[in-house]
Amino acid sequence: MDNKKKITILGAGISGLATAYWLNKDGFDVQMLEAKSKPGGSMETSLEDGFLVDYGPNSGLETTPLIRQLVDEIGLSNEMIYANESSNKRYILRNGKLHALPTTPPALIKSNLFSLRGKIRLACEPFIGKSNDGYYQSIAEFVRRRLGQEFLDYAIDPFVSGVFAGDPNKLSVKSAFPKLYRLEEVYGGLVKGMIKGARERKKRSEQSKQNATMFSFINGMQSFPMSISKKLKGKISYESQVKNVKLENNKWEVTFEKDGKNHELISDYVLSTIPVYEASKIFSRLDEEFSKHANDIYYPPVMVLYLGFKKKQIGQSLDGFGYLIPSKEKKIFLGAIWSSTIFPNRCDEDKAAFTLFVGGARSPHLFDIDRNELTKKVLIEFNEIMKISGDPIFMTSKIWTKAIPQYNIGYIEHENYFDRFEKENSGIFLSGNYRGGISVGDCIKNSEIVYKKIIAK
Fold first, then answer.
1. Residue ranges of domains in the chain, CATH in brackets
2. Quick one: which of 238, 321, 348, 366 is 20 to 30 A from 123 by CA?
3. For 339-355, what is each residue's pLDDT tens digit?
4. pTM of the shown model
């Protein structure tokens, strides 16, 4: 007699796959439903004309030992690679010129990125008091109060665009950057918190995001979900569109469409890892309030523009990760990653590859422009900054119409609702990058948390 608990997992992105892996390893009867023809969700890698293109996440940060554990267990250790040391150097555009972002006090003193007044303001941080309510405070308000306007303009504003493709005036500091806010909440300040918090992370074998090692795979990020999926062979149904989830005789019945026909799966649990706007189409039938919260979560559009040049075309030294552009610089795009400098096997040695990002919450209106015209404008600005002569020898792009969930002010209301929804619909679990963080490391860490919640049922 088979007494194994059955679980249906919606979505075969990294969140769903990692949780499925832990559950399958623990003896659960796992079945996954994925709308696309391949696993990975937003992790999409393609080899085109000798260029390795990551259309989604191009790297991860090894913030938890779970990442290495998972990589080792799925047999991907030999393909895992770490970023070139030179990629520790990151640039910010100011007044049309690239300035290295200082990472040490001596470098900050010498840096031309910040004015003397801005540096003096930074030194005042340990003497700034706590705020009252981080849930309803933007990251812009938080940084302006603790570190000053100039640091907001030329460090945090571009950083927020680079990570969230977001607007610092709208993102909640406590929901979007909980570890940053915790430094003030627990320790009374950022400098004090960084010193004392480092000791805590060491005990947990964790790394802060600013110190964690950047990783990818020799054949791109999609290698990760592809390798996990091989360990779940026969348990993933692709091109399967979920239509409905309902409770029947104390079991969850999932209806999905595949090959033009409807099918049903009966299970003890359902884990949804699909984007919340897709989950809304399914779970609003169980609770009408679900759609209200789902529709309030903004996913801005982002274009990923991938460019290849011959190195001899480029006047700018490629000695870093890339650069971010503050909104004050009024450029068309958000920043550029020097992809072939960071990791090997992205293109031939005599060529260079770059990944640019356009749009986001800062400028969604850009997609009202003709795509070819928008690309031309970006190319003009990029070539000027990078001192490039001539046209790219390779170019491709992808527009994510709904890119990254924005943890905006008041996001706690959504977080509380999703907790309540799970309690009121016992056996249903919600996961994905709209809960607990948007990064690859966050998704892996949360997969274990969700796994433990499920086995505790």
1. 6-41+218-286+425-455 (3.50.50.60), 101-209 (1.10.3110.10), 300-400 (3.90.660.20)
2. 321
3. 999 999 999 999 999 99
4. 0.93
